[in-house]
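Researcher: Following up on the earlier apo prediction. This time include the ligand. It's NAP, with the SMILES given after the sequence.
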Amino acid sequence: MKILPHIPKNILITGASSGLGAALALEYAKAGNNLYLQGRDVEKLENIAEKCRASGAKIYTKITDVTDSKTMQQWIEEADKLSPLDLIIANAGISAGSGGGGETTQQVRKIFATNIDGVINTIQPAIPLMLKRGCGQIAIMSSLAGIRALPSSPAYSASKACVRYYGEALRGNLLNHGVEVSVICPGYIKTPMTDVNNFPMPFIMSAEKAAKIIRKNLEKGKGRIAFPLALYLPLWWLSCLSPRITDPLFSRLPAKPSIN
Ligand SMILES: NC(=O)c1ccc[n+]([C@@H]2O[C@H](COP(=O)([O-])OP(=O)(O)OC[C@H]3O[C@@H](n4cnc5c(N)ncnc54)[C@H](OP(=O)(O)O)[C@@H]3O)[C@@H](O)[C@H]2O)c1
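Model: Understood. Below is the ligand-bound prediction.
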């Protein structure tokens, strides 16, 4: 097995125009690094790109929707031709909950399309390229909601559990071929995604701190990067119990607002 590039130079990040993705872009922005940053909002993405350029990194931006598989495939192949990708972070995602009377079918489909298809569209084009080289690292943004399903956000929890399982299975599948997969499961992070929540969010941390934790653990090649421990451990333990025991607790959780 080849030694993996744990200190990546060519990094592709989806959802880099805001929140965690933007903080990760800034975390990796330094002279000598090529960053391929994606988002849908031109102004927000350009603003982050400018800040990254100021840190000395070479920045290539892409405005596209992660659900557009054709454009994603083209973009990733083009980026890889410019400089072989060391690290891909499939971060773009949306969240919404059962606030306002339950999830609509439209909301469920939108969350699945972005959080599941979006991840597939990001990592599938990269896998054959990395396998051919025998090296590369793929990081998938899941969530602690992917460890124990939250009745307050069913589709979001399901989408994050899906990509966690996908990533953890892929890890075992690709490891012997030199391609490493890590799944990231953060708790509450202060970003526009959580700014809409009007309930207490235990152990909430800044996106900058989360990005540092993620980078350090990706460098170590950790399979599951779940944090903060104070939230991860109880959730993991609760996930081992029968829903019959935990229902009274989880069904009382406040719901995240829904989307149209
Ligand atoms: N914040 C938390 O507490 C938390 C906790 C655990 C996991 N996460 C996960 O972390 C990731 C980032 O979330 P965040 O908190 O940073 O949220 P955010 O600030 O709302 O950022 C979401 C990013 O995803 C992009 N995006 C959303 N839908 C897209 C689509 N269809 N096509 C392309 N880009 C799309 C957005 O781009 P535009 O704005 O340009 O459209 C934006 O850059 C998500 O996967 C989320 O589930 C967040």
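Model: The mean pLDDT is 95.
Researcher: Noted. I'll compare it with the apo version next.
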